[in-house]
Specification:
The protein has strands at about 1-5, 10, 20-25, 30-40, 45-50, 55-60, 65-70, 75-80, 90-100, 105-110, 115-120. It is an all-beta fold and about 120 residues long.
Length: about 120
């Protein structure tokens, strides 16, 4: 089985910073793609950022220049550095991963349980 656990959420004032981390464990041989999504109150879940196995990154327009996604393959983690946070960044942030199991199976869309990020004064 595979588990994704997010950490680092919390309450921050506008203009502040937070760093989210997502640790993967379980039946994982390697992680191919890792992503961050978020879901604000009353809104649909939206894409935030992606990082591929080659290190290629993609960001939603709303976070470009403020957020940075990175990965540590040895630790099987992905992080999201969030700077200059705005109230509209308030959401539950979810880690998502495509993995290859120890048996060689490629499996998509494992999800973490989410980390609350609240940006408010």
């Amino acid at each position: 089985q595979v588990q994704l656990v997010e950490s680092g959420g919390g309450l921050v004032q506008p203009g502040g910073s937070l760093r989210l981390s997502c640790a993967a464990s379980g039946n994982i041989f390697s992680i191919t793609v890792m992503r961050w999504y978020r879901q604000a109150p009353g809104m649909e879940r939206e894409f935030v950022a992606t990082i591929t196995s080659s290190g290629n990154t993609t960001y939603a327009d709303s976070v470009k220049g403020r957020f940075t996604i990175s990965r540590d393959n040895a630790r099987k983690t992905v992080s999201l550095q969030m700077n200059n946070l705005k109230p509209e960044d308030t959401a539950v942030y979810y880690c998502n991963a495509d993995i290859r199991s120890r048996s060689g199976a490629a499996i998509s869309n494992y999800w973490g349980q989410g980390a609350q990020v609240t940006v408010s004064s």
